[in-house]
Amino acid sequence: MSRGTLFDKVWDAHTVGTLPSGQTQLFIGLHLIHEVTSPQAFAMLRERDLKVLFPARTIATVDHIIPTDNRDRPLQDPLAEEMMQSLEENCKENGITFYTVGSGNQGIVHVIAPEQGLTQPGMTIACGDSHTSTHGAFGAIAFGIGTSQVRDVLASQTLALAKLKVRRVEVNGALSPGVYAKDVILHIIRQLGVKGGVGYAYEFAGTTFEQMSMEERMTVCNMSIEGGARCGYINPDQVTFDYLQGRDATPKATDWDSAIAWWSSIASDRDADYDDVVVFDAAEISPTVTWGITPGQGIGVTEQVPTPDQMAESERAIAEEAYRYMDLQPGKSIQGTKVDVCFIGSCTNGRISDLREAARVAKGRHVALGVKAFVVPGSERVKAQAEAEGLHTIFESAGFEWREAGCSMCLAMNPDKLQGRELSASSSNRNFKGRQGSSSGRTLLMSPAMVVAAAVTGKVIDVRDLL
Ligand code: SF4
Question: Which of 87, 137, 182, 279 can pair with 35 through a Cys bridge, CB separation 3.0 to 4.6 Å?
Fold first, then answer.
């Protein structure tokens, strides 16, 4: 039996058997698919004359390639239209629910599953996308998988996986005004490194996470993968149950009580053993901005870009590469760095609470001259809710463009792209070279409130100066 962490309990409950390779064959409760990683997987199934084993456990949406302005069919990009048609046909042929554009349910895969109550505690979840770790916010074990694994899950509803170690990442204390969940996870990755979590599941624990809303917890778990952890999770509690109650896919009536009992039982035991424990103090976390080309190259907004002598030897080569690529000087303040584009959205920070906080900062202000700023809701539901609250009017009055739901400039597999050397202040999760659509484009990761602060001043500033 398990040692008493949620990870071990969920793993054990979903273990089908041990494979000759030594890996576990793990049953996957929910398989989320989208247009980018599924076409090849369906083709592989067809080649072997296989069918999707559990269509009811598979949910599809379109997010990466969908334009966020004109979504009329056929899509202007022939490749995007082809991917869209392929997903439509594969879902129809296999009896899979597809939340398509205009259904009221379309959006980024990691936004729509939680908002519909599909993501639940104690589940195993897989999706052909790295940021599947998001769903761990509910106490699920959620893995990003590759195309051949998407095929495996479609055909067998199982995955061959090696068991992970568990690191308890504890943060305690209240966050200061202007410091958000995004800052917490950027701080953790800065401290533990982008490879620090390799071989681990991260259990986020402590009073800081206990006090967070579900949407804040999703922001944290979303970026577990950027710290090298295959998945990240938070034990389910009353905040989780309150969020889930009444959502479309959650249990109803007496089933709800049974669900609460099961969900409560899978939380880590007080005396659970961990392979490692690290502890941080929330009071030490300030609004955080990346200066380099990995999410671990972050600093507090009032700090200077670090110099090589402030780093471990192993970090210097990538830092030198980052100085050159980003054109930022070591030892200089990050504040005052001019920005060209400001992007609010993505599966990290494209939820309603993110847009509310961004609108709070944008209200009564205006985007600086020469800056392009836009807001992309994470889902059609988020968009409808934001419009019902009048947030779109605040953004538009402030000079932001208000878009349709999708991944947009997080990955730029759609018309939203940086041009040339443009520098973007972005609420997304990756600042890799060329990530936002231009091979020389540059990205600074930060919270949505910090992105608005950059948009209205035209440069990186401390959002606390505006609050
Ligand atoms: S928003 Fe970005 S990270 Fe999230 S699913 Fe889309 S492309 Fe991937």
Answer: 87
